[in-house]
Each structure stands twice: as C-alpha cells, then as structure tokens.
TrEMBL record:
One of its GO terms (biological process) is siderophore-iron import into cell. GO terms for molecular function: transmembrane transporter activity. The lineage of its organism: Bacteria, Bacillati, Actinomycetota, Actinomycetes, Micrococcales. Keywords: Cell membrane, Membrane, Transmembrane, Transmembrane helix, Transport. The keyword Transmembrane helix applies. It is a multi-pass membrane protein. Belongs to the binding-protein-dependent transport system permease family. FecCD subfamily. This is Iron complex transport system permease protein. It is found in: Cell membrane. Its main location: membrane. CDD domains: TM_ABC_iron-siderophores_like. The keyword Transmembrane helix applies.
Length: 357
C-alpha cells in the first residue's frame, strides 16, 4: 500500500509510473510504422518507374517527370508508359488490401481473402462472360459484370459454409472458397479456350497482370474504387464491434446485420473494380492484415487505413520482381503474389496463434 506523509500520498512507486507509460507507446509505434511504410512505398514507386526491360537511372526518371510537356525522347516515353502501370498497381493494391482486411473483420475469419474465398474468381468469370457473350471490350463495359460476379461468389461461399451446426467456421469458409475458386477458374479457362480472341486479349489478365494498363482503364474504375474505399474506411468502429460478437455489438448500439451489409458492399466494389483493372490477384488481402496486426495491433480503425498504404507496396514489389526475374520476358504480378502468399497461408493454417483476430 502507498504510505502517506502529512495526509498526502507518497510519491508514486516506479511500477505505478511505468503503468502510465504504455499509453503513449501504441501511438508512437503507429507513427514510426507510418513513416517507414511511406518511405518504402516511395521507394517501390520509384523502382516501378525505373526498373523494367530497360533500366533507367533515377535522375532520368526525375527529369522526365519534371518536364511533362516534353513529347519526344525514348526515356520520356518509357517513363510515361510505366506511370499508368504504377498508378494501377497503387490503386489495385490498396483495394485488395483494404478488401481483405474488411473481409476478415466481417467474417471474423483470419483466413479471409478475396482470392481465397472465390470473390476474385467470381468477378473474373463474370468479366470473361461479358467479353465472350456480350461483346464487352473495355473496362467500363464489363466492370458491372465484375461487381455482380464478386457479389454472387461471396454469397455462395458464405451460404455453403453456413450449412451444418457450427455455421461458417474459418475452415469451412476456406474450403468452400477454395472449391468455388477451382470451379469458377475451370469455367473461365474453358471459355477462354473456346474463344481465341478472348484468349489472346486476356491470357495475362486471367492470372493477374499490370502490363499494358493505361489511363483510360484506370479512370474507368477510379470512381468505384474511391467509393468502396470511403465506405470500408468508415466501418472501423463497426468491425471492432463485430470482433466482440454480435451480442456485444448490439450492446454497444450497433446493428451487426447492417454493418456486415455495408462492409460487404464496400468489399464487392473494391474486389470488382480491382479485378476488372488488373485481373484476379490473390493473397494480397491475406498477407497485409496479419502483417499489420503484428505491427500496430488489432484495432480496425487503424488496420483499414494502414492497409491502404501497405498493400500497394506488396503488389508493386511483386510487379517489379516479375519484370526482371525472367528477362527479356515478364512474369505477371499475380504469379509472384502467389509465390509469396502461399507459404504465408500454409503458416497461418498450421499456426493457431497467428490467426487470432
């Protein structure tokens, strides 16, 4: 007990002082992580513009970027052909990372990911159906199909996983998602094989590729990406409540069903627009939330915005590696992301501590 001197409390013991110190540590840690992530993101953006089949010095990149009116010169052409690709990676990465974080919160499933649960596969198949049967040839023409396919796939996976006494457990969701992904991917490949024009145009896109992205494609999906980000970024408090269980969430004055529907709508917008732009890229939404939980904690009010900053780093790094690993050819970013994400997925399945939300 604390002794008193002349009716006043004695000075606090060192242990008592130490108990007040941790209140500052999370904020300081988040600030440091934010600065590090911003610096790394800047580096990978510069690498994305400078590295490829033709390597450009950063001084040349900066000179080309600072003279936007210049229209001749090989260096200028190379730099400005890579800028839309880099912007596409930034946007698609942010969408996939944010969608993965949101999905894990909505489903309370640490293995949730747009690629693993069939959402990306549903969007991809719907895009190919739009191309083959409805003659859609631009992103603006088939993005609505991507939204529909993503939504239907999410509903089917959750409905199948909910069968039985235990309901939609993480393992059942993962199995249902894997089965649906395999089936939808088979249908997608069958459609492409039977339509040579679509196969030629979407051969790289179907495995997730950033090659050939242009400003028209980026601008076509940008409004939907922004809307999906705004919706999902506003659900941090809701996801924190859902993490406590529906009963406690109701006790906090929340409507769990409405919260899930709102967050799910944001996820569909993000997955559909990202898939329409760069194809079905998996594991980004799985890796990023777990990495951030280890760095900044489990509060979704922080996880969601930090995922917008972290996921583009992973996707851009995968794209840069894919450009140089098999020169003069190129490995699509979707394949590199699988090589990175598959071992992480196996680790998470085998390690129960790593999948604590």
């Amino acid at each position: 007990m604390t002794e008193t001197i002349a009716g006043r409390a004695a000075p606090a013991e060192p242990a008592e002082v130490a108990n007040s110190a941790p209140a500052w540590r999370p904020l300081a840690r988040r600030a440091v992580v934010l600065l590090v992530l911003a610096a790394v993101l800047l580096l990978v953006v510069l690498a994305s513009v400078a590295i490829g089949a033709r390597l450009l010095p950063l001084s040349t990149v900066w000179e080309a970027l600072s003279h936007l009116t210049q229209s001749d010169g090989g260096d200028w052409d190379v730099v400005h052909s890579r800028i839309p690709r880099t912007v596409a990676a930034l946007l698609a990465g942010a969408c996939l990372g944010l969608a993965g974080t949101g999905m894990q919160g909505v489903a309370r499933n640490p293995l949730a990911d747009p690629g693993l649960l069939g959402v990306n596969a549903g969007a991809a198949l719907a895009v190919i159906v739009a191309v083959v049967f409805f003659g859609a040839s631009t992103v603006s023409g088939y993005i609505w199909f991507a939204f529909l396919g993503a939504a239907l796939a999410a509903v089917v996976v959750y409905a199948v996983a909910s069968l039985g006494r235990e309901g939609a457990t993480p393992v059942k969701l993962a199995l249902a998602g894997a089965a649906l992904t395999a089936g939808l991917t088979s249908l997608l490949n069958a459609l492409l094989i039977t339509n040579q024009d679509a196969l030629t145009s979407f051969r790289n896109w179907q495995v997730g590729s950033l090659a050939g992205r242009d400003w028209d494609q980026v601008l076509s999906v940008l409004p939907f990406m922004v809307l999906g980000m705004v919706i999902l970024l506003g659900t941090g408090r809701v996801l924190n409540g859902l993490a406590l269980g529906d009963d406690l969430a109701r006790g906090l004055g929340q409507n769990p069903a409405l919260g899930r529907a709102l967050a799910g709508f944001g996820v569909v917008l993000l997955c559909g627009s990202a898939t329409a732009l760069v194809g079905p890229i998996g594991f980004i939404g799985l890796i990023v939330p777990h990495l951030l939980r280890a760095l900044i904690g489990t509060d979704y009010r922080w996880l969601l915005p930090y995922s917008v900053l972290t996921a583009p780093i992973v996707l851009l790094a995968a794209d840069v590696v894919g450009r140089v690993v098999l020169l003069p050819g190129e490995v699509p970013a979707g394949i590199i992301s699988v090589l990175i994400g598959a071992p992480v997925f196996i680790y998470l399945v085998r390690n129960r501590r790593a999948v604590t939300l």
